[in-house]
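During the no-cost extension, the postdoctoral fellow (Dr. R.K.) reprocessed legacy sequence entries with the updated structure-token encoder. One reprocessed record is reproduced below for audit purposes.
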Amino acid sequence: MPRPVPLYRSLLVRLLAASCLIAGSAIAATAWLAASTVTSALARQQGQTLQADSDIVSQLSTYAVGHTDWTGVAPFLRQLSAQYQLRVALVGTDGKVISDSAAPQPAPLPPSATATVDPLSFDTSTNPGAQHPGIDPRVVGPYRLTSAESTGLKLIADKEVFCLVKDGTQAQTVESPSGRYTVQDVSAMTKDAETCAPDYDEYVAEPQPTESKPLAALASATAACVAREGLVVPYEMAVTPTFQLRELLPRGETAAPSEQCLHTARLDQLRPYVAAPAQLYLGIGTSARGRFDLSGQNRSKIIWTAASVLALTLAVTALVGLRLVRPLRALIHTARRDPGEFARAPVTTRDETGYLAMAFNQQTERRQQMDSQRKAMVADIAHELRSPLTNIRGWLEITRDGVVEATPELITSLHDEAVLLQRIIDDLQDLASADAGTLRVHPQPIPAVELLQQIAVAHRAQAADLGITVTVEAAPGLEVYADPERIRQVLGNLVSNAVRHTSRDGRITLTAAATATGAGADADADGDAVDAVELRVQDTGTGIAAADLPYIFDRFWRSEKSRNRSTGGSGLGLAIARHLVQAHGGSIRADSEVGVGTTMTVRLPARQE
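Re-encoded structure tokens follow.
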């Protein structure tokens, strides 16, 4: 019996420890999150709203860059209003309200707007959090390159960067929103590095096919603007992909084109690709709210905190689970192997799973022993049945062939062999009933003296022929509570074995005695309550070796390994006797000394009223 699992190794304790760790982490994370969130909310209530206003302007600018009008902006405004707990309204340059998050019951607008949302006039992407004058670089309009054109520029730029880095100059490739790739920090190049990739400047300066048409239109619009200003330009002008004017001058002539015309023409060209300018109004017409301000930053904290606690929970659970499951998987793998292998599971822990593996190994060992016993029993049964059947068949064949006559002696011999077969089959049937749990007994009170006298009379004639004396010793009035037929079968088997192993002039003594536990109502002659009755068969025979005693009740076991029936029976008698005694709720044991004799003791419980 294995020792109890130590408390510190118990699966229950380890699971409780893991749960406490997870709960402690969750409590700590919740406390930190509450303190951090409340601090952030207080800071906002104290007037730190500039960042939120800047974010709203930036997000609306992003919306304007990706849409040609404000038609579908209403859901987006409501989303911003819910996120920042502010009223958000957009008003066109004509004074008409484009959309208002406070609809359908808007409050009056303030006298001035918070900011102007116009990607063609203000840039909110180059420097996040700020709004600078100029065209937002995300407004690319008709200048977005195709994938092939962008890839070609990237290859040239990468070649230039490789050349510069090889020369010791810090440089990197930068992608613009239109898909153009340029080299950053080229101003730091040395003279030698400038010529290491000579095709870069020329290739980058030339417009791609996608850019050629809009750049030509931009140059024409610029020229028209110059003409409207009353300037006479005796040359052709062109615009580079970086929106710089390039002069195609005749020989000996120079001029100064108008940069303002280029800017105006570019605005006119990009205007159809973005939403119209709008005035932004924030916070006017909303009432103060008394509930908790769950800002975007607070939501991020909650999400990251929940994710961290979840990750810790998963990590701890996975770690503990793997340690708990690993030996179980090994046990499952072992159990699924071929049953004939009798494999053992590895015992890697000293907790319940380790004890389970130990119990599995013990069960495997018992199965292996039972399998060996089964194989030996099958071989023994075959041998026991083969011998008499061979004798019967042999004598019948030679009798049929006329070699010998069917004399009364031959018929008697064949009958004895048939009786032996019948006895073996009956014994096997009794063992099968015992194994199946269907062996039933019907106990009743039997006088002990009468029982032992019947057994002695049944074997006294055979014992007398061998010069053996059989005597009976039993207290008068002692009763045995047992099935008469079954107990006679048990005692008869024991006496038969004693006769077989006792030499001439030996003695066999049958005794019956009560074991007592103290005074009581059901008492014997001495006034002690009868606890059980012990029936003993004692002989002065050859005895049994101490090494053989543990096996004498095994099936088909004989002290004579030669299986000679002159010195041993079928080898089933003691096995059946043990099952019959156990069916009565009793026990049987053997005490023996070689050369002195053997005592077989059957202990049966007293009758329970």
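The first strand starts at residue 88 and ends at 92. Residues 440-605 form a domain with the Heat Shock Protein 90 fold (CATH 3.30.565.10). The remaining legacy entries will be reprocessed before the final report is submitted.
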